[in-house]
Amino acid sequence: MVRSLWSAASGMIAQQTNVDTIANNLANVNTTGYKAEVAEFKSLLYQTMQTETTSANGENKPISAQVGLGVRNSSITSVFKQGSLLASTSDTAFAIEGDGFFAVRGEDGTTMYTRNGNFNFNTGTGSNIVLSTSDGLPVLDSKGKPINIDTNRYVVSKLTVDAEGNLSYPDASNNAQPIGIKIGLFQFNNPSGLEKTSDTLYIPTAASGRALNEDNTPRLTKSKVIQGYLEGSSVQVVDEMVNMIVAQRAYEMNSKAITTSDEMMELANNLKR
Question: What angle do CA 217, 209, 137 make, to 5 degrees?
Answer without folding.
Answer: 80
